Amino acid sequence: MARNAIGAKIVGKPTGVKLRLKKGDQVRVTSGKHRGAEGEVLRVDHEKGRVLIKNVNVIKKAQKPTQDNPRGGFKEQEAPVHASNVSVLDPKTNTPTRIRSQVLPDGRKVRVAVKSGTVLDE
Questions:
Q1: Distance between CA atoms of residues 42 and 80, nearest Å
Q2: Model-level pTM?
Q3: 39, 69, 71, 80: which could form a disulfide with 53 (CB 3.0–4.6 Å)?
Q4: What is the largest CA-CA distance in the chain?
Q5: What is the radius of gyration, based on Cα positions, of the chain?
Q6: Given this model, what pLDDT does residue 13 score?
């Protein structure tokens, strides 16, 4: 929740981070423990500025015993990575690239890879 200098709520101002990443994008981790790992974006969290990538940053989470699983145990699942540590892969060259937006002649606004000019949104 956004607040001003004296602690009053700021109404109507977005609190999330503007990300150019979308679910289904192919990305590469550019820094951190999982640097160089590639995968598909499963979820984007605009509030926290994080993305969930398939088979990257896998953690073991302890499970309490339940009626379905009386022994409990550990479950492996992906943990989110900060969006600043990933970059989208250019579909043409398979290298990391920046993204810009462009308005096509038919009026659609699409994301375009800076390196090759390839349209990312189909």
A1: 10
A2: 0.79
A3: 39
A4: 60
A5: 19
A6: 52
